[in-house]
Amino acid sequence: MKRFPIRTLRAPLAGALALIASTALSTGIASACLPQPTPIIEGINWHYLSPDGGHLKLENGKVSGSDSCNLVFGNYTITRSPAGNVLTFGPIATTSRYCSQGQATQQAFTALFSRPNGYKVVTLPGGEQHLSLYLAGTKGVLSTNTMVFSNRNTHPEKH
Hints:
It is a single chain. By secondary structure, the protein is an alpha+beta fold. The chain is built from 3 helices and 8 strands. It has helices at residues 6-27, 29-33, 103-113; strands spanning 45-48, 55-59, 62-66, 71-79, 86-94, 117-123, 129-135, 147-150. It has an 8-stranded antiparallel barrel. InterPro entries: DUF306_Meta_HslJ, HslJ-like_sf. This is DUF306 domain-containing protein. Residues 1-32 form the signal peptide.
């Protein structure tokens, strides 16, 4: 076996490391390791992606909107931490209209307001954003507890 002095291997090793680093940067691998900015969810009209509609707006600690039938309004807080951001509502008040449709949506909003929620924002091609609200601590796993909103109104007749 032929032995090479360490000095001989330095240049090829440095070149290989530089190639790996530049590839990681150009493919975005390195950016996945950097801290991601906190998604902006305030000051946006979020429209619930369901056949019944519904919407929320979060601004300066106040929430307002509709659960597809009744108006909702109240307070919220956002707690930011390395483990994930948490959105908590309360106290919340609603109007009491008679609604013959949309009970499932109304129940989903009631559940949303009664628990701490983790959240994620995804930007789609074309700029549309989706806000997913899920039971805090579940790491955003899609379930019946997940509500997805869009920054685009998919139910203009409901407003």
